[in-house]
Design goal:
Helix content: 25-40%
Order of helices and strands: EHEHEHEHHE
CATH superfamily: HUPs
Structural class: alpha/beta
CATH architecture: 3-Layer(aba) Sandwich
Strand content: 25-35%
Largest sheet: 5 strands, parallel
Number of domains: 1
CATH topology: Rossmann fold
Number of helices: 5
Number of strands: 5
Strand order of the largest sheet: 3-2-1-4-5
Distance between the termini: 34 Å
Length: 131
């Protein structure tokens, strides 16, 4: 069984690209298991991760592909949550969505993707960059 942790933010396009990469991994659907991770930075309405459109989109795609999955939700720094979840489940791979940012934007605001790459003790795949 190949266990993948997928970091899912609010962007549906990121979620779709990440799940497409899981589907395209070698092996049968039955050989893959996914943990979708969504970290709420701000959640005044008390929503659950399964109510977030991007998480629902990813879930529906995984179901359609016949891939076993679970949804983990948390609050706090998304990069820390993704890395700690990957460690907790002993994931074989972490997949996160990329985005275009200027060097100054990365320096000023940080990057979840960059933090995951630097903090993970396992392979990290970054999906195509969306504008």
């Amino acid at each position: 069984m190949y266990h993948v942790v997928v970091g899912v933010d609010e962007e549906e396009e990121h979620a779709r690209r990440c799940v497409e990469e899981v589907v395209n991994l070698p092996g049968e659907s039955s050989e893959k298991r996914v943990t979708l991770v969504h970290s709420f930075v701000d959640n005044p309405s008390g929503a659950s991760a399964t109510q977030v459109h991007s998480v629902r989109e990813a879930s529906e795609m995984l179901e359609a592909a016949g891939i076993e999955y679970e949804v983990e939700e948390s609050s706090g720094d998304p990069a820390d949550v993704i890395v700690s979840t990957a460690d907790d489940v002993d994931a074989d791979l972490v997949i996160v969505g990329g985005r275009k940012r200027s060097p100054a934007g990365k320096a000023l605001f940080g990057s979840v993707t960059q933090s995951v790459i630097l903090g993970a003790a396992r392979p990290v795949m970054v999906t195509g960059v969306a504008n």
